[in-house]
């Protein structure tokens, strides 16, 4: 990883979900390289309870057809062919669709929610690393994470859960890299004071 890459605060504040992405996307080797770094995210028990399935090129169309097959059943008011065309085209919004699969170790001493937290931490780290390299990404979920057709085509096991897709590619060239307006979240912050506990005990 090059030292010239963006500093951490800049990367965090300038990363945005990118809705329209084009070539180039990272190669398989570059993706693996970034993933090795992202996998350093905190992971209780170091279980790495996840895997990625990369979908590119014409394989995207096969995924789009899975989405269309499942969407058609859910939208009876719209003509089926229109639904199919619209939904199938969604996969063309980026050259690389990295499928995030959660593989919880069931019955493990590390609870499932902690495994999910570790997976989410890794995914965010990966988005930041992609951004620092000049790529854009967006984590997309929606109803298709439950698509039985997509699950079957991608070869998911029964205990695995689809957490969605990182759509990855290059953002438009004129995309301004403005740091976002930092939100005040101090209302989500408090400091515990022992004196308050003592007061509550005295006056319950
Ligand atoms: C788990 C997860 C699922 C998401 N699913 C979608 C989605 O299905 N469609 C979408 O447009 N954005 C999706 N997003 C992106 C959020 O909408 C986006 O992060 C949010 O609007 C804030 O924008 P920002 O990432 O540019 O800060 C998802 C984000 C996360 C973390």
Automatic annotation (TrEMBL):
Which InterPro entries does the record cross-reference, listed alphabetically?
A: NAD(P)H_nitroreductase (IPR052530), Nitroreductase (IPR029479), Nitroreductase-like (IPR000415), YdjA-like (IPR026021)
**Enzyme group, top EC level?**
oxidoreductase
| Keyword DNA repair belongs to the record | no
Q: What cofactor does this protein call for?
A: FMN
Any one Pfam family here would be Nitroreductase
Q: Does the keyword Coiled coil apply?
A: no
List keywords of the entry alphabetically: Flavoprotein, FMN, NAD, NADP, Oxidoreductase
Q: Which residues form the Nitroreductase domain?
A: 13-169
Give EC number(s), comma-separated: 1.-.-.-
The similarity annotation says: Belongs to the nitroreductase family.
What protein name applies here? Putative NAD(P)H nitroreductase
Q: What is the lineage of its organism?
A: Bacteria, Bacillati, Actinomycetota, Actinomycetes, Micromonosporales
